[in-house]
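Appendix B. Chain record.
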Amino acid sequence: MGGVQESGNGKHLNLDLNLTPMIDLMTVLVTFLLMTAVWTNLGAMKVDQSVQKPNKEQQREQPKRFTIVLKDEGYTVKFDKEEPQYIRKITDANGTLTFDQKTLVEKIKELDLPAEQKVVVAADDKVEYNDMIGAMDACYQKGLFNIVVADAASVMAEM
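Structure tokens predicted for this chain:
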């Protein structure tokens, strides 16, 4: 280890630096980095956050819009120019109110939407993140991967 040695010509500083703990720490950190870097790509979901209106120059046929709004009461589902349909929350086995994802999947199946259909999912501020992911999973189950996340207030104003 380190210390001061006295010799005939004066004092000399003898410094031995133990690098073993630092190397051990770096090995653990590199291992942790490599393991987490692999798993972050597997859990990624491509989401577009742009809800833009086309310019007036683009007078081609507007794509039909499918919107799912999550509010505290349940889902509001609207396709193109149809009237919005409401899917109320249901009581589960524990007696708590939950979103009726099964009915949402049936509604998406009933509409028979093409795979390239753009889906706007908008959640109110009171809605939990897990419930919004449940609505997105319902779209994924039916092959709808073009999902846009938007603000519920702005989407409800357009409905």
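Further analysis of this model is presented in Appendix C.
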